[in-house]
Specification:
The complex is a heterodimer of chains A (336) and B (311).
Chain A (H helix, E strand, L loop, with lengths): L3 E14 L2 E14 L3 E5 L6 H9 L6 E8 L2 E2 L5 H7 L4 E4 L3 H4 L6 H12 L5 H14 L5 H5 L8 H13 L5 E5 L7 H18 L2 E6 L2 H7 L2 E6 L2 E7 H6 L4 H8 L49 E5 L2 E4 L20
Parallel strand pairs in A: 3-8, 3-9, 6-7, 7-8
Antiparallel strand pairs in A: 1-2, 1-4, 4-5, 9-10, 10-12, 11-12
Helix pairs in contact in A: 4-5, 4-7, 5-7, 7-8
Chain B lengths: L3 E14 L4 E16 L4 E5 L6 H9 L6 E6 L2 E2 L5 H10 E4 L13 H12 L4 H14 L16 H13 L5 E5 L7 H18 L2 E6 L2 H7 L2 E6 L2 E7 H6 L4 H8 L9 H22 L9 E3 L5 E3 L5
Parallel strand pairs in B: 3-8, 3-9, 6-7, 7-8
Antiparallel strand pairs in B: 1-2, 1-4, 4-5, 9-10, 10-12, 11-12
Classes of the chains: A alpha/beta (336), B alpha/beta (311).
Chain lengths: 336, 311
């Protein structure tokens, strides 16, 4: 599509363990449009953070294959110096743990200014401070002059996360990547931070990649959702499609295991087995196969591919057609 | 008679600061909470970080000293006397900790971790002990052959089950579970929650479940207490609180739960705005001049609310 802001094609990020390379992100293709929130959901170890780091070019020891293009410009082959210019100016990142993302020895005001010093050398000292105060106001900090002088440990978790966001948006990036931005926060604070991200997205018209394991956050925020399992994307769809008509066995299982989705005190659905570790991933066939052993082997593809089953709705492997939960008799045929 | 009854529990920490670390106002982490847990039931303590829910749990089991108040277990006062009197209840009350990575000693084998409570309270021969640990591991769905393994060889969900095996080793009557699944992935979380409910039925256990996740609380609990700054703002059955919340803080907390239905997104946004403006407007009425909740007053047989002084 022509208004694609970010397009990722066959991105693979491999890490060396012993004398072999293992792909933590395996052949991922997706796009993010302007003014859109794309959520990437997956459990720990699914490769969602590794994907974010690969897009930002933050993996120093990974072998990266495939292509990442921001507004048509290829990022994977950029020299580090060029990448440094883009990072923080055109692409901002909101990290999960605000306490370790901020420098404990620097007042937060200077940490925000740092982003301005690096990317807008034209600004005078006074202008920088004004801009920083403006940013602090923009992320909803009451008393920005006071907050400017504070060290990270003097602020609460919600406030620190706002500082991290202020740094990420200091130069009005075109792409914002938020890696579990609210995981460490209380529900009421989480709500404020999510509201803020939503508002900033429409203010600066950025495309947002929201990485999370929390399906509640996804339901609140996303326009489209990509579900990751074991380094691969297994399903992409618009939010409403994904919630109302999920197809891949993994997506359906996940949605079934949320306590809120079930009757109180009923049994929650548990996915059998465990996520295989990077070294033990089956490199052949459907990666979810070992978690649904009651499904006939022939239901899986030999080389699972993404199938577009409806406009914009992609599902990996053919096993979704034959999937049923244990105890369900009927085999559902195909998808709507 | 309730299995556990907590009355007017207070835990204050001496504040230090200023010149030469002199004494200042104490931090009132828990400031007069009271609740009962009936046999075989699950009581949920909900609150945001810093509300004192964890301190309450730790005070009951004796990990934090009480400032005042009383805790009675099966009619027996736990807070009186020192060690001797307490030992017996230590068998009957066990704890499951939040973080399965830091609550298991990495240098110990599974056998030693799970057998530790047995060694403290029961005289078993090494052979009997091994047999018991094997049974316990099997009970929590781990291979009985893994008794010589170390914690790092297990995944997060498995580790949490090791913690549960340790907690149920002495066949306790009450388990205090402090955020037992918040460190776990969704699918593993479901597994542990199912498992907690299973052993509850099988062993007639009572739980004190401490969590900030309202979805889990709703799923697991019979009664719920909502804490704010060391005090209860509301207490009642799960239905009371989720269907008929009274206190403005409870309403605000409930409105912050993410909605899974995107069609209701707009509706929910409007609802939240309404609750938020009500919160701002009614804050003065619901909290005293220190921003603390008023004492609880019953509004039905099961439901208590920290009602404003007047009106």
């Amino acid at each position: 599509m022509h208004d694609d802001l970010l397009s990722i094609e066959h991105l693979t990020a491999s890490f060396r363990i012993g004398d072999r390379y293992y792909a933590a992100v395996d052949d991922v293709s997706l796009t993010v449009r302007k003014n859109e929130i794309l959520a990437i959901v997956g459990e720990s170890g699914s490769g969602k953070s590794a994907l974010a780091f690969s897009i930002m070019g933050l993996h120093t020891r990974a072998k990266i294959e495939g292509d990442v293009r921001l507004d048509g410009q290829s990022l994977t082959r950029l020299p580090p110096s060029k990448m440094n210019k883009l990072r923080g100016r055109d692409m901002g990142m909101i990290f999960q743990d605000s306490l370790s993302a901020l420098n404990p020895l620097m007042i937060v005001g200077s940490q925000i200014e740092e982003a301005l010093v690096l990317h807008r050398p034209g600004l005078s000292k006074k202008e920088r401070k004004e801009k920083t105060i403006e940013l602090l106001t923009q992320v909803g900090i009451a008393g920005p002059e006071l907050a400017y002088e504070k060290f990270p440990h003097e602020l609460s978790g919600g406030m620190r996360q706002r500082i991290v966001i202020a740094i990420a948006i200091a130069n009005e990036p075109r792409l914002l990547i938020a890696d579990e931005p609210t995981t460490a926060l209380d529900v009421t604070i989480q709500l404020q931070i999510l509201d803020l991200i939503r508002k900033l997205k429409s203010d600066i018209g950025a495309g947002v990649i929201l990485i999370t394991h929390d399906l509640g956050v996804v339901a609140e925020m996303a326009d489209r959702v990509a579900v990751m399992y074991a380094g691969q994307i297994v399903e992409i769809a618009s939010l409403s499609t994904l919630l109302s008509n999920p197809q891949h066995p993994y997506t359906r299982s996940l949605l079934r295991s949320i306590p809120a989705s079930r009757e109180p005190k009923s049994k929650l659905y548990v996915i059998q087995g465990i996520v295989p570790s990077l070294q033990h991933l089956p490199r052949q066939g459907c990666r979810f196969r070992s978690r649904i052993p009651w499904i006939d082997e022939s239901a899986h593809e030999e080389q699972p591919e993404m199938h577009e089953i409806a406009p914009g709705h992609f599902v990996r492997c053919t096993c979704y057609k034959h999937f049923r939960f244990p105890g369900e008799e009927e085999i559902r045929h195909g998808a709507s | 008679m309730a299995l556990l009854e907590v009355r007017q529990l207070k835990v204050h920490f001496p504040g230090r600061g200023g010149w030469f670390e002199s004494r200042t106002q104490p931090v009132k982490a828990v400031d007069g909470v009271g609740f009962r847990i009936e046999e075989g039931q699950t009581y949920g303590l909900v609150g945001e970080s810093g509300s004192g829910k964890t301190t309450t749990g730790r005070a009951i089991i004796g990990l934090n000293a009480l400032t005042s108040g009383s805790v009675t277990f099966q009619g027996q006062e736990l807070t009186l006397g020192k060690r001797g009197g307490k030992l017996n209840f230590r068998r009957d009350i066990q704890m499951i900790f939040q973080d399965p990575y830091s609550s298991l000693n990495p240098k110990k084998r599974l056998l030693d971790i799970v057998a530790e409570p047995l060694r403290n309270f029961e005289r078993l021969s090494p052979l009997e002990e091994k047999q018991r640990v094997r049974e316990l591991l099997e009970r929590v769905g781990l291979s009985p052959d893994s008794i010589y393994k170390y914690p790092h060889e297990f995944s997060g969900g498995q580790r949490q089950r090791i913690g549960i095996a340790r907690a149920i080793a002495l066949k306790p009557k009450l388990i205090i579970a402090d955020e037992p699944v918040s460190a776990l992935d969704l699918s593993v979380q479901a597994q542990v929650l199912n498992f907690l409910r299973e052993i509850q039925e099988e062993m007639k256990l009572s739980f004190l479940l401490i969590s900030h996740d309202l979805g889990i609380i709703r799923h697991m609990c019979d009664r719920i207490g909502i804490m704010y700054k060391g005090r209860f703002v509301e207490q009642g059955t799960t239905e009371d609180l989720f269907e008929r919340p009274q206190h403005i803080y409870t309403k605000r907390l409930l409105s912050a739960i993410p909605v899974m239905d995107p069609a209701k997104r707009e509706e929910q946004l409007r609802f939240r705005e309404a609750v938020n403006s009500e919160y701002k407007e009614a804050y003065e009425r619901y909290f005293d001049h220190d921003g603390l909740a008023y004492p609880l007053k019953p509004i039905s047989a099961t439901h208590e609310v920290a009602a404003p002084e007047k009106g």
